[in-house]
Automatic annotation (TrEMBL):
<keyword id="KW-0472">Membrane</keyword>
<feature type="transmembrane region" description="Helical">
    <location>
        <begin position="256"/>
        <end position="275"/>
    </location>
</feature>
<dbReference type="GO" id="GO:0016020">
    <property type="term" value="C:membrane"/>
</dbReference>
<keyword id="KW-1133">Transmembrane helix</keyword>
<comment type="similarity">
    <text>Belongs to the polygalacturonase-inhibiting protein family.</text>
</comment>
<keyword id="KW-0677">Repeat</keyword>
<dbReference type="GO" id="GO:0006952">
    <property type="term" value="P:defense response"/>
</dbReference>
<dbReference type="Pfam" id="PF00560">
    <property type="entry name" value="LRR_1"/>
</dbReference>
<dbReference type="InterPro" id="IPR032675">
    <property type="entry name" value="LRR_dom_sf"/>
</dbReference>
<dbReference type="GO" id="GO:0005524">
    <property type="term" value="F:ATP binding"/>
</dbReference>
<feature type="domain" description="Protein kinase">
    <location>
        <begin position="363"/>
        <end position="616"/>
    </location>
</feature>
<protein>
    <recommendedName>
        <fullName>Protein kinase domain-containing protein</fullName>
    </recommendedName>
</protein>
<dbReference type="InterPro" id="IPR050994">
    <property type="entry name" value="At_inactive_RLKs"/>
</dbReference>
<keyword id="KW-0134">Cell wall</keyword>
<keyword id="KW-0611">Plant defense</keyword>
<keyword id="KW-0812">Transmembrane</keyword>
<keyword id="KW-1015">Disulfide bond</keyword>
Amino acid sequence: MPAAASKAPMVTFCPLAHFHKSENVRKALVTFMHKLEPPDQNFTWGWNLTSDPCTHNWHGVTCSANNQYIKSIVLEELNLNGVLDTTSLCISTSLQFLSVNNNNLHGFISEDIKNCKFLTHLLLSGNKFSGSLPVSIPQLRNMKRLHVSDNHFTGDLPNMVNVTSLISFLAQNNYFTGQIPDFDFSNFEAFNVSNNDLHGPIPDVRGRFGADSFYGNPNLCGKPISNSSCPKPPPPPPIVKKDKIINQFLDDLPIYSGYIVIGLILLIFLIFKLLRKCKTKDKEKGLDHVEKKDMSQDTSVVVGGGEKLSEILNSNGSKNWFNGLGMRSEYSMTSMESGVTTSGLVLLSSRKLRGLQFEDLLSAPAELIRRGKHGSLYKVMLDNGVLLAVKRIKDWGISKHDFERRMNLIAQVKHPLVMSPVAYYCSQQEKLLAYEYLPNGSLFMLLYGSQSGHSLDWRSRLDVATKIAEALAYMHEELGESGIAHGNLKSSNILFDKNMIPQISEYGLMVSHIKGIKNRNMSAASFRADIYAFGVILLELLTGKVVKNDGFDLVKWVNSVISEEWTAEVFDRYLISQGASEERMVNLLQVALKCINPSPNDKLSMNQVARITNALKDEDDKSISFDTLRV
């Protein structure tokens, strides 16, 4: 080994403290229990500052399989007499299930309930809660069951029409007013708003619920409580024509007609000039917003000149499914006008897209951002100014039914760092998927673009690794039974929003296959492939070197350097020059090596990876705080 080469210390991993063991979270949960006011304040069912919620089995608390985080809190029929302190409760952001049914709790529900962003069940029935429900409740996009019956709630019902996962809403025996929102009743298993003070027409419940779900609201009308429709509003008063004025106008019309014609000509001329100027500006903008080339595999192309998405799709090899019948392509506007398209656009989660039709999407101006081996990506601007990234998937051997099942499941399992599809189109020949367009490029571009990674220092890279690990671990746990892994995780699929927060894109679009994995359980293999791919991303963050299928093998190179005990040579020279801690880089490198280990028995789970990267980030943050204090 050359004299200049140095051996880096190899640090072994220690068991990590779970997030619920942090003092702040434990204090918050104990405060939450104190404000519930148990009958005996000296007996709080084990909720205290000297024990752990999971390992010491706090009453009513259920944790994940490995005691990594709290999943549910059930405190039913305990004669609790206090208030629901959601400000303290939702510091434990992982909570999915909360039930305090059948107690004597009172007071308002705070807007801070929105911080329990993964909540799927909120069961508050049989108490004495009052006031309006928080306006932030519709922000709980994972909500499945919302039960608030038998309380003293007032105000409007929450507008949950965009919460597509909701299957049960019980709000009977309260004092709610206003109209019933137009819920998507096709997914509902239970619905009851009886005995309130609601008014107006009952939405179409699609025959799923009877009159007993609506009784006790005398001002409701329509089916199913009445066969007669709601009374129509009175017609507007008739317009009284004044014959004298009309006759006078007709007499004077020849005098003013010349002025009218001149005015129309001037107006048309001004509109023409304005449209021409706007078109020129749009062309220039189309050429300015060029996505940088993905050097690993993808080819970037920018289509300017205001071409429609349908024209670009046809010009890039869209199949003519009806050639044998002498019919036009699926994406031709003529075929759209003739009603040839086989199915419509399915909208999943965006209020901004409400009412959007497949024809509207195809007629919108678009750019081809890049073309890769799994399909093409387009930037599309809708009439209302909303920007979408539309993915056209090719060569994916999956049925239309399975595609729709996967997309709907992914849309329901939401994580703030995972981009959910907002719409999709699926026919036998073509599959399109739409996401919100993110303006700040990908991790690949930040690492290998014109700045050569200099915009990402060590703390930024560790922060990206931590956030992506946390999001991927959550998706693996939520979609594990469904067998839906990411399938194509890479640095070009880690995008950044307007605040430079990383987001995982294209989750679940591909079924991955990794060489060396021979297992009949392809679902488990897909999740292990995600872990392998995350390990490769960690290597990119640590080394600053590009991954190429047909050239430099990053994994093989890293292993060869480490085997020669030249570990320090692995790391990006920019990180070294910025004074990044070599010890912590070695720790993260060990995580990467565990992820890319071909042996499934020795490989970490994503939950383990997330805990370790979180611990490394906490350690890094503490060291910076300590250094700051010393200065």
